[in-house]
Design goal:
alpha+beta, two-stranded antiparallel sheet, 4 helices, 6 strands, elongated
């Protein structure tokens, strides 16, 4: 697995805006993508070495009264669809997550096949 170029930035003050993060983190490399949420952000650099450099320089820095956390973003595991009635669910573009929905689809397909 190659080095990551995607960062997680935590403990962000509500006073911080995207342009503030672009200014602060833009010093360490070209930013490909930035997504600011309430209290945290994800930032992606073009190069992995820029992300590594930004972590070393920005982790623990005080921005607008809060000490931010900067680290490599963790990859989310890919969720597999449930293996309930695979033949029945193959007729649909989505996989319902609740038991009742699965049962309704199952019974509807049973009636349809009769």
């Amino acid at each position: 697995m190659g080095r990551s170029n995607r960062l997680y930035i935590g403990h962000i003050s509500s006073r911080i805006r995207e342009k503030d993060l672009e200014y602060e983190f833009g010093r360490y490399g070209r930013i490909r993508d930035l997504s600011l949420k309430q209290g945290f952000a994800f930032l992606e650099y073009d190069k992995a070495e820029d992300a590594d450099y930004a972590i070393r320089k920005m982790d623990g820095v005080n921005l607008e009264g809060l000490r931010i956390t900067v680290e490599f973003a963790k990859e989310l595991p890919v969720r597999q669809p449930p293996r309930v009635g695979a033949q029945v669910l193959s007729d649909f573009a989505f996989v319902p997550r609740c038991y009742i929905c699965v049962m309704l689809i199952f019974f509807a397909s049973m009636l349809r096949s009769q």
